[in-house]
Amino acid sequence: MSLEEILQHRRAVRKYDAEKALDPEKVKECIRLATLAPTSSNMQLWEAYHITDPEVLKKMAVACLNQGSAKTCKEMVVFVTRQDQWKRHAQAVLEANIAEINANSPKDRKAHRIELQKKYYAQLMPLTYKRCFGLLGLLRVIISQVVGLFRPVPRQESEAQMNTVVHKSCALVVQTFMLAMSEQGYDTCPLEGFDSLLVKRALHLPHDCGINMVITCGYRAPGGVRGERFRLPLKEFYHRI
Ligand SMILES: Cc1cc2nc3c(=O)[nH]c(=O)nc-3n(C[C@H](O)[C@H](O)[C@H](O)COP(=O)(O)O)c2cc1C
């Protein structure tokens, strides 16, 4: 399929074919492809929970407010944000970047580049991702406002805004997954109509993770897509400057 065909095939499916099962290995492969999505600072603070167990699917349908898409799907993938994993991921990315510099950078640039990476992942990332009941975020906002008087600075530094940063990256992963599924001829529907507490209970997730989206998966049933696609005209979105 061309990219346009993949995009045209992907529709939000509200009713799946009860007779047609998916190959869970192919769904897993689509999750692997989704790992190729970009994430902020390459921090990859997300996880995917691939549900094929019928009992857990039933619990999840209730957690998803008994929406038709959730009640009829064959499998689900729940995308979760894991800001709490920042330390481990920053260390892993730093090690990978240093190995890359050692392998590929010119000799005279290595030390400088490694120093920059250490500053970024060992000093800036802890400052950016650490949380403390909103207090560290407030401190970061104050610092960025003061520094911002003298030079351009990133200003989205509060703990709530960092939550948005993590969800933004996760949403790119989700879209990559849905497009990979579409390429397989599989159907999906992204859901944010769910009770996050029930989702965490059903999947035994830690309370401080974030539920980004629940993606239902299957083959669409006849009438499983609600009508023609509606989009506002491009001029509503497009601004050339
Ligand atoms: C973040 C997000 C949350 C959504 N939540 C729901 C939902 O809870 N239930 C539902 O039926 N559709 C949900 N949708 C699907 C949208 O309604 C759908 O994508 C939109 O109407 C456009 O239709 P299309 O995807 O077929 O182009 C959601 C979509 C997104 C991106």
Structure description:
This protein is α+β, with helices and mostly antiparallel strands and 241 residues long. It has nine helices and four strands. The chain has helices at residues 3-9, 24-34, 54-63, 68-72, 86-104, 107-129, 135-147, 159-183, 196-203; strands spanning 46-51, 75-81, 187-191, 210-218. It has a four-stranded antiparallel β-sheet with strand order 1-2-4-3, with helices on both faces. Helix 1 (3-9) packs across helix 8 and helix 2 crosses helix 8. It is globular and about 60 Å long. 29% of the residues are buried. The mean pLDDT is 96. It binds flavin mononucleotide (FMN). Flavin mononucleotide is lined by residues 11-12, 14, 67, 69, 189-193, 213, 229.
Q: What structural category arises from helix and sheet content?
A: alpha+beta
Number of strands: 4
Average pLDDT level: 96
Radius of gyration: 21 Å
The proportion of residues in beta strands is: 5-15%
List the bound ligands.
flavin mononucleotide
Percent of residues in helices: 40-55%
Could you give the order of the helices and strands? HHEHHEHHHHEHE
Query: What is the straight-line distance between the termini?
Result: 33 Å
Query: Within the largest sheet, what's the order of strands?
Result: 1-2-4-3
Count of runs of 4 or more consecutive helical residues: 9
Main beta sheet: strand number and arrangement?
Answer: 4 strands, antiparallel
Principal-axis shape equals globular
Q: pLDDT below 50 for ≥5 consecutive residues: which ranges?
A: none
